[in-house]
Amino acid sequence: MTAREDEHGTPGSGDFGRLLNWHLLRGTRPRRTQSQVGKRWGTKEFAEAVGRTPRTVNNWLINTHLGPDTDSIERALFGDDPTHCAEWRVALRFAHHASASPVLDNKLIRPFFGVPPQIAGFTGRADKLAQLAAALAGASTGDAAAIPERVAVIGLPGIGKTSVATEYAHRSRHRYAGVWWCSAESRTSLVTNLSALARTLGVSTKIDSDIETAAKVALQYLGEHAAKWLLVYDNVAVPSDVVDLLPGPGPQLLITSRFSDWKGWTAEIQLDLMALHEAADFLQRRSGLVDQTGALRLAKILGRLPLALDHAAAICGHTQKSFSNFATEVSRLISRTPRGVAYPRSVAATFDLAIGDAVAREPLCDSLIAFLAYCAPERIPIALLRTNRGRAESEVLLALSELSLIRHDPFPDGMPAVTVHRLVQAVARARASKLGIAKRALDSLVAGLENLFPENGYSHPKSWPLCAKLVPHVLELVRFDRRLSASIHWGRVLSRAASYLHGRASYVEAHKMFERALKVRERSLGRNHEETAATLNDFGLLFRRRGDNAKARKLYERALKIRIRQSGPAHAKTAETLNNLAVVDWAEGQFARSVRRYRRVLTIKKRVLGGSHPDTARTMNNLAVALHDQGKLAEAEGWFRRSLSARKKRLGLKHPDTAETMNNLAYLLIDRKKLKEAESLLTRAVRIWLRTLGNDHPHTNSARTNLAQVYLMKQDTGRGLALARQAMKHSEVKLGSRHASTKRAAIIVLAALHGLGQKEEAELLRAKFDLDHI
Question: Which of 89, 248, 386, 447 has the smallest count of CB within 10 Å of its CB?
Fold first, then answer.
């Protein structure tokens, strides 16, 4: 068999076999750019290049016997540099994933992420489900301004918005290439779920540092491909919270929200109360009891609210209590519930009865539901419940689950978790306050988070999955910050969460968290405590990363005074802040002063930690950077190589800190015209940072910029231009157009454009980034 002609002539058409065939016909090869056509591949030649037989290649061309990945194919077509033809690499992986998907009952197994289980006995709402399907398909909803394929299901709390969305997702899953459910109560939860989608699609690294950008890349990718997906954003507060995360044409979007005006953003479907006969039918189906008269009476008392009906049915079904007796009890409670609360009184009464029944069975239910009430509602790790308790909570969880107060909802990686409806939480908080156990529940949750939240979230990607599971609960606790403002433990939780968000390049969220952590630590420990100094130091790191050296220096100098006073001038913590001040000196061009500080720090760290400790290796790296900028290239190279050796030994070849020294050493080797070794080091650094920090992290873009410079020096201008453009674009989004890293990438692009004779574009770029002095 020979490669087949593709009449479309583009790499985006067809499945994996057709896409591979297109590359073979056009002669895609490692030394060619996306605009350059090369020599056609023969089947035998390509088989040798990927280490397979011609028969295997022919099977690939018809989508049979596909391998587990595309690594060998990518190397043959695009080379070892992971940034070369990055878009084509992603397209190839996605096509391979789609074509290699396992088959069950002759249907593709499609992603079905985060969707709650179908509600037993779901009934009614047939008209709304039909209206929803028509609206998502683009049919008229009576709103001329609505955008097709986006629909908001709106209504009062407890009206059943999430239930309708859940039922639609289950009934319609066969229509979609995938269904992705996102909790959207907070922006962090939404972007975390969308970044997980990016990893599933293969358009993001396994552990991507920048979750905001990964989320937007996922949405862009869905819009560029023909496969139809359903995205669900559950419980969006207001449109402005998600305006930049609304997908374009392509995927269908289903939003649930209490906000009543989505005109201009989406089509709207207003949920009303269930019809009385539907409500009575639901009670009987859900509970297994048959009593039409009692069901009608209870449905009327509960105001036909689906959420109240669901819990009432669960209680009656579990306890075998008649509808009439339950109606009498709930009527009495409704009359006692104050008016003006943020949820329907029938819901409050129903939940109060459910919690009471659970406590009657297991007395610990009161304290556990109070604990859960202050968490974020979605996916509360069971491990968090157990970190501060003496025994497993299985019996208590079972009692709450049987009465529909919680739902077992494990994370995609299998980690056990439970979800609690936000209205259950509201009732439970009111109950906890009435019983006088609210403060104990808050303190217990803070203690659990302190025990479980990793301390190394800033620089250790392996800890990020656990941090990501815990951060939503920290953010939820911020709502109750006034009750925790003097808590030492709360300050530790905030500081760890802030460092994690900094490490994930979520700078705005990290800034807010650091501000709060600093206030709490100053209030609880005092302005001169070591833990206060630690937060000042870490907050300074964030300002330094964002290019605000003046604010970073101010925080570092305050931290240094505290640490000298508390620990002495030769302590490792003092050395840590001295090191950070030396970085600011270097950034401000005070190279001699920076070198003096680094030598002092290195002396302390060698004595306290040893010559090969990772912290010592970091200072060696930083000293070498400062020496490089002083023009002392030989001494700088020696320190870089010592740092690289120590980091390889203690951290390994694939650690992001090892990549840092590779990148810095390569930059020096560029100055020394040792381009071959520089290219090798930079290629490895880019690969490590792509895998560990993500596509848009500033470190990744730094290595891209350096590698682009190498390509330009080797007269590979087209390749250098493509890589520098990529670095410039990502750096501008992440750091802004005035940041030094963005301008350096822009300078490389400018040089490449001049080299290619593209003067008009070069002048536009010069004006945009204020490069008149170049």
Answer: 248
